[in-house]
Amino acid sequence: GTSPKLLTLVMIDDGKRVLLGHKKRGFGMGYYNGFGGKVEPGETIRQAAERELQEEACIEAVDLREAGVLVFAFDDQPVAWEVHVFAASSFRGEPAETDEMRPVWFNHEDVPFEQMWADDQFWYPLLLRRAYFRGVFAFTQTTQLLWHSLTERDPG
Ligand code: 6U4
Ligand code: NA
Ligand code: NA
User: Fold this and answer.
1) Measured distance CA(102)–CA(124) in Å, rounded
2) Rounded to the nearest 10 degrees, how much is the dihedral formed by the CA atoms of 36, 40, 43, 49?
3) Which single residue of 39, 67, 91, 110 could bond 48 by disulfide (Cβ 3.0 to 4.6 Å)?
4) What is the pLDDT of residues 69-88, one digit of tens each?
5) Phi-psi sector, 122: left (phi>0), alpha (psi -120 to 50), beta
6) Max intra-chain CA distance, the chain
7) ipTM attached to this prediction
8) Which CA distances in Å does 62 have to 33, 43, 106, 141, 143?
9) pTM over 0.80
């Protein structure tokens, strides 16, 4: 079909530091990013976000909020990705390494954008000041950012 693939991305931001996962396998291997993955049949987007955070970082968000939506178009993938970004400032449990991710805290001013997806440097400033955002990013050869559009907007 032509409908986009739905994914989630959870950002833990305590106001000074963000918790990122160093991805050990699969798509985006070697990059730091938030925790997330595909929405499975029968679950809501929020449930998928909660599940992936538990699976990848071993924690449960206390104050999960909708932070924005990112659309990624790849010239080497059959459909676009619609990534629902959530954020939380507190959580239960202790972040732990999993088969997929190694969690690392970064101060806001030390976020390693050179080891992250090329879109992240554009929308992190909005995330960190808690502005709801919508971004559209076009990639070629999987990781090369060709074009983007980013707007601040009301949720919903
Ligand atoms: P499986 O098949 O279960 O191992 P799953 O965990 O469902 O995979 P995965 O890890 O491939 O999915 O999900 C990709 C994750 O990477 C999602 O959280 C969204 C995130 N992501 C993908 N492209 C991104 C990009 N350009 N910028 C970004 N995050 C991206 O910041
Ligand atoms: Na994942
Ligand atoms: Na998954």
Assistant:
1) 20
2) 0
3) 39
4) 999 999 988 999 999 999 99
5) alpha
6) 42
7) 0.93
8) 20, 19, 20, 37, 33
9) yes
Give me the torsion for CA of 114, 115, 120, 126, rounded to 10°. Answer: -80
CB 120 less than 6 A from any atom of ligand 1? yes
Tokens representing residue 47 in the block = 């449930």
- Ligand 1 within 6 A of CB of 21: no
Amino acid at 56: E
Burial class (CB in 10 A: 0-12, 13-18, 19+), 17: middle
Q: Is the CB of 18 under 6 A from ligand 1?
A: no
CA-143 nearest atom, ligand 1? 26
Beta carbons within 10 angstroms of residue 41's beta carbon? 5
